[in-house]
Amino acid sequence: MVRLSPVKACNDCPIRYRAVCAECDPDELAVLEQMKTYQTFETGAHLAAAGEDLDHFSSIVTGCATMSRTLEDGRRQTVGLLLPSDFIGRPGRGQSAFDVQALGPVTLCRFERHSFERLVRETPHIASRLMTMSLDELDAARDWAVVLGRMTAREKLAAFLVSLTRRFAQGAGGPRPGGGGVTLQLPLTREELADHLGLTIETTSRQMTALRKDGLIDLRPAREVFIPDFGALCAEAGEDGDGGPIV
Amino acid sequence: MVRLSPVKACNDCPIRYRAVCAECDPDELAVLEQMKTYQTFETGAHLAAAGEDLDHFSSIVTGCATMSRTLEDGRRQTVGLLLPSDFIGRPGRGQSAFDVQALGPVTLCRFERHSFERLVRETPHIASRLMTMSLDELDAARDWAVVLGRMTAREKLAAFLVSLTRRFAQGAGGPRPGGGGVTLQLPLTREELADHLGLTIETTSRQMTALRKDGLIDLRPAREVFIPDFGALCAEAGEDGDGGPIV
DNA sequence: CGGTTCATTGAGCCACATCAAGAAGTGTGG
DNA sequence: CCACACTTCTTGATGTGGCTCAATGAACCG
To answer: Which fold is adopted by the domain A2-144?
Structure first.
């Protein structure tokens, strides 16, 4: 389930300029390089469990994960989708408030709690980057609350596809915006999608079909989604269209 | 609408040990004391508007406010309820992502953006407190996403009352936990409550009535809510009952 | 005391949930 | 390459929680 794997040099790291280390200078990076280990997980592995002690932090290097909570009767809500460069763990608290689960094979860059917390205190570039990332996540969580609280099922789907496209576009290897359309690789099953959107799997599936029939998306094998007109999808998500294409 | 008002000494401040200044030592406090001004706002005043430039930060000293977004068609979702000691504004970004509106008379302790951002950089006690507060808000926002996405109207109401009781209990002058019950002063109208819960005003009102008829709460004049058995209300909110009374 | 805002209640409807059945992928062993 | 099992996805039929529309009641305030 969990394996240690060879560590890549930070300079070759795919998330070098987006993760907690983004603002580090070469000296600081050298310290991080000493501390880090790599771990790989299989699909479905639990990277953290709600209420469980966490003696480490990690950055996602490759793969995706969800952060979710499950109520006693089985209802589940995903509260965050973690992509490469996202951070797992909360400095100043030894427990995770949510379950974190790998959506596919995941590679983590891992730091032990005590040494990393000391590093944060002593390295303003890391502390400041962590602050920026937390505030971005806070904004994202609040944006998502608007979606969950006030949008229809169709709007939720559209908003999710738009948001995922934008997030992938910021990273590398994301959707290819060629020929007037974008291709998106969904990392979630319909059920995981439903848990993220606060819907049932059936409603999620029906709305995907509806968007397809309306020509807003094309559903392809292997969970690939083609978006012929990104602006049109944004409009479905109730956007005021002031943000140009993709970004 | 806005007025400057006489500044209180930090040592007499009701939020001295909960706001951004909580970890400051006397020297640091003296610097803050030089920088701060007080502002008072009337009910309904906009403390910030989504997309608007913000050249300052503030802490709520007294009163309550909501953070919300309104879609073009008028649907509104509140994404946060701000109580005394809560912070308004986001270091590193000059614009507010949400509307912030006073629920009643509000007093703010205000700092100008540039001088405060410099202070944050130079004062680890402030930076660290800001980090802790942001992470707490992030957890709260994610907790709320679970409520919005997966709970029934009745559970939403119960969860909100429970959460508000706990937040007031941490501050001063909150609910009085005397005689086997708690009295809670709601700072929101039914409409504001509905916007926070992702419901309509009618459903909100009906569920309040239902909770009253079931003996879980007592509705009193002036938006006062009496909770005879806090644990019973927690159970309605779908809590696993591992957190003792009130906290 | 009359205007205004806020809250409650009722009747009917609709978007989404639930229940149920297949269809389409995906992986494994022969 | 196929047969089989299993998971994922789609689609249909029906139920229902919360929304909409509408009216009345209660509280607040000049």
So the answer is: Jelly Rolls (2.60.120)
Could you tell me which CATH number the domain at B2-141 has?
A: 2.60.120.10
| A152 strand C contact, CB < 7 Å | yes
Q: What residues in A contact B197, CB-CB < 8 Å?
A: 149
Strand pairing class (B106-112; B37-41): antiparallel
3-state secondary structure chain B: CEEEECCCCHHHCCCCCCCCCCCCCHHHHHHHHHHCEEEEECCCCEEECCCCECCEEEEEEECCEEEEEECCCCCEEEEEEECCCCEECCCCCCECCCEEEECCCEEEEEEEHHHHHHHHHHCHHHHHHHHHHHHHHHHHHHHHHHHHHHCCHHHHHHHHHHHHHHHHHHCCCCCECCCCCEEEECCCCHHHHHHHHCCCHHHHHHHHHHHHHCCCCEEECCCEEEECCHHHHHHHCCCCCCCCCCC
For position A247, what pLDDT does the model report? Answer: 53
Kindly list the domain boundaries of chain A, sorted by start residue.
Answer: 2-144, 152-236
Q: How far apart are CA B196 and CA B82, in angstroms?
A: 12
**A57-99 pLDDT, tens digit each:** 999 999 999 999 999 999 999 999 999 999 999 998 889 999 9
pLDDT per residue as tens digits for the range A152-186? 999 999 999 999 999 999 886 666 666 678 999 99
| B85: its two tokens | 């000691």
pLDDT band of residue B242 (cuts 50, 70, 90) is low
pTM: 0.94
Q: Helix or strand or coil: residue A47? A: strand
Interface residues of B toward A, Cβ cutoff 8 Å, are 67, 69, 71-73, 75-77, 79-80, 90-93, 97-98, 121, 124, 127, 130-132, 134-135, 137-139, 141-146, 148-150, 197-198, 238, 240
Q: Say if residues A63 and A123 touch (Cβ distance below 8 Å).
A: no
Contact B240 A72 (CB under 8 A): yes
> What topology does CATH give the domain B151-236?
Arc Repressor Mutant, subunit A (1.10.10)
Residues 6 or more apart from B89 whose CB is under 8 A from it?
A: B48, B54, B56, B57, B58, B96, B113
Just give the CATH number of A152-236: 1.10.10.10
